[in-house]
Amino acid sequence: MAIYFWISIPIDDFFHYSNDLMKKYNVSAYVEMIGDKPGERKVDVYDENDPETFIKHFYDPNYYSFYFSCYPFLNVDSVKEFGTFYTPEIAPFTVEGNGGVETEKTREQIHLRQIQKQPDKNIQRFYSALQRKLINIPGIQNSYVMDKHEYKNRYCLPTSKIIIPHNPHSRNMKGSWEEYYLNSIGHRTD
Asked: What is the pTM of this model?
């Protein structure tokens, strides 16, 4: 399957559909929050018994990205160092994810990508199985319109909300990414 994958669905549905495959392929999900100091990170791991705690991080202003990894970390503390998922020993076992925030007006697309072009076979099988499962969700559509452009090979569940691209995480931006994007395409934010 593709190295890059885009889908626009509610983040709780996304992890609901991911959960069985995570167990099958022995993959964990991690969400990364950035702090105010350079290099400061907080990482939380997905717990299928308490998915709400994990999902709430996607609505925190410090949410940065999330990862699927089958690397055998000893504990969550070992992934807190800046750039851990991109190190040569961990990157082949990891899929990076961005986006997933949803508000009353918008739904941010989820963007997934394999970090390494030559990934570990287990994470590659997980990633392919996840893509197959997601594109077969009842009601999913192949393509959607953002601004004035129609995007093929990007999947979405129909919504009355405006689908926006995943946040580029620019801390220099004034206001929220949602306001910035809606203003850039001419939609009012009030």
From this structure: 0.86
Q: Which letter does DSSP use for residue 30 in this model?
A: E
Asked if residue 43 belongs to a domain, the reply is: yes
- Around Cβ 35, how many Cβ atoms within 10 Å? 11
The total domain count for the chain is: 1
181 vs 177: CA distance, rounded Å: 6
User: Digits of tens for pLDDT over the chain (190 positions)?
Assistant: 568 899 999 999 999 999 999 999 999 999 998 877 777 788 888 998 999 999 999 988 888 899 999 998 877 677 766 678 888 999 999 999 999 999 898 899 999 999 988 899 999 999 999 999 999 999 998 876 666 667 777 899 998 988 888 765 555 566 677 777 777 766 654 4
Query: Is residue 189 included in any domain, yes or no?
Result: no
